[in-house]
Amino acid sequence: MEAFVSAVNDVVWSSALIYLCLGAGLFYSVLTRFAQVRHFKEMCKLLLSSNSSNTGISSFQALAVSLSGRVGVGNIAGVAAAIGFGGPGAIFWMWVVAFLGASTAYAESTLGQIYKSEEDGQYRGGPAYYFDRCLQQKWLAVLFAVSAIIACGVFLPGVQANAVGNAFTQVFGEGTLVSTSFGDVGSFKLVALAIILIVLAFIIFGGIKRIANFTQIVVPFMALGYIVLALIVVFINLDKVPGIFSLIITDAFTAQAGFGAAIGWGVKRGIYSNEAGQGTGPHAASAAEVDHPAQQGLVQAFSVYVDTIFVCTATALMILITQQYNIVGELPEGQFIVQNVDAATEIGSAAFTQMALFSVFGGFGQAFVGIALFFFAFTTILAYYYIAETNVAYLNRYFKGSIPLVLVKLVIMFMVAYGMVNSSGYIWAIGDIGVGLMAWINIVGILAIFFVAKPALNCLRDYEEQKKAGGEITFDPIKLGIKNATFWEKRLEQKAKDKL
Fold first, then answer.
1. Is residue 150 within 8 Å of residue 395, measured between CB atoms?
2. What distance in Å separates the CA atoms of residue 118 and residue 491, rounded to the nearest whole number?
3. How far is CA 4 from CA 10, 415, 425, 433, in A?
4. Separation CA 282–CA 294 (nearest Å)
5. What is the pTM of this model?
6. How many CA atoms lie within 13 A of 304 on its CB side?
7. CB within 8 A of 19, min separation 6: which ones?
8. What is the pLDDT of residues 215-270, one digit of tens each?
9. CA-based end-to-end distance of the chain
10. Containing H/E element for 297?
11. What number of other Cβ atoms are within 10 A of residue 232's Cβ?
């Protein structure tokens, strides 16, 4: 089974997808005139927007929900894996993906807002909705919805749970081995699993509001605490920082693990972490209550910076400064190019990060990574559930019934248990397949949308003109030649009636 998963992963994550992700980011960066740089100040202002309603959540809550998906295991264990398999140069390519991917995140999240709908008292949107309404290709919409349900409901939750289990083992040890249907499992892993499953069940039955209220508190708090610890490590070793940045940049092009490994692992882990181009971010973006779709597009572009430039860089600096890492070559398999720590240390886990903090803060640092991973992973599982739920809601227009959503909840909980007790490499490979499937469909789709209608670019231009003119910000899709934006058309009609 593991050999099959690895073979499928190699096909999905061929060099074609890697360069397609980079190319899409560059494409939208040029067309938006690098909006991710020009509108940085506006992004920060929009974060403070407190608009919300009984139907939609605020921009900050939408950011928190999307960050709960972006800031997860990929920021801690994923960065460690990128260094372990791709060398320090992989971090440079993670930065490139984040910078270019911010424009992709703008485009896909703006599209999510333009073509969202109101269903059962909630805003819903995402790639399935904009492929249906903008491209008018229902088959592509259904294909994405099915792939998102499989990826977020089956393939991805296990990655998050697996990292939590490994982190608990790193801190507390295995504990007493307990015989289960999955094999012998340490008692501490089972305790962590029980906590996750109980709290997960409580929250996912409460809808997007409960998810948003939880994530808007937990995500900023844990991310800030994690970055503070990283900054302490940096300041203690300030003299080493220039050398570390030099190592990252030079290794990006003369990679210890090979150029292909550096760019491959950097792009793969970058996209896994910041989700730009995956098509996952637009789901939370569509749930936000905003005056103009471009506003949420810019907020989501900023979230890519938070994820990669801040949190992933914090992890990389801690690992590289303290030299708590190994680099393994692809051929011959298992041969170390660099070995600084025990050869038995699992590269696909958070062990490098935990050892880096342990070397500075002792047991507290190691425990903090375990706690951070628990919350990062848990909130990411919540985000995955919401994405799966949204796509089930889309498919419900064709297949009515409440059973599919109940099944998704049960499957996610099973996959959390399955991921917790299996090996990291195997679970990461399954997760990569899920990410790759969505990325292929979404990136091809949003590039096709540009050539068909260019709605995200027209939206940005309209927002910039309104900001320059001053006054009330509104969105009129008909004036911009955008068709099938029914939610916004109805809102304009209602505003006109209210003025009479």
1. no
2. 11
3. 10, 19, 13, 12
4. 12
5. 0.84
6. 36
7. none
8. 667 777 777 787 888 888 888 888 999 999 999 998 888 776 565 667 777 777 67
9. 66
10. helix 293-304
11. 15
> Where do we find the tokens 């790193």?
170
Quote the CA–CA distance of 458 and 294 in Å, as a whole number: 10
Residue reference for tokens 């800031």? 71
CB 74 within 8 A of CB 266: no
DSSP H helices, 344-402, are: 351-361, 363-395
**HSE-CB for 292 with a 13 A CA cutoff:** 23
Do residues 42 and 350 lie in contact, with contact meaning Cβ atoms separated by under 8 Å? no
Cis peptide before 332 (omega within 30 of 0): yes
The answer to whether the beta carbons of residues 275 and 281 sit under 8 Å apart is: yes
Helix ranges (DSSP H) in 48-186: 59-70, 73, 79-86, 89-114, 127-133, 138-150, 157-172
What is the tens place of the pLDDT at every residue in 345-379?
777 667 788 888 888 888 787 777 777 777 777 77
Which amino acid is located at 313 in the chain? T
CA distance 195 to 207: 20
Structural domains in the chain plus CATH codes: 1-499 (1.20.1740)
Coil/strand/helix, residue 118: strand
Can you tell me the distance from the alpha carbon of 77 to that of 169, in angstroms, rounded to the nearest whole number? 14
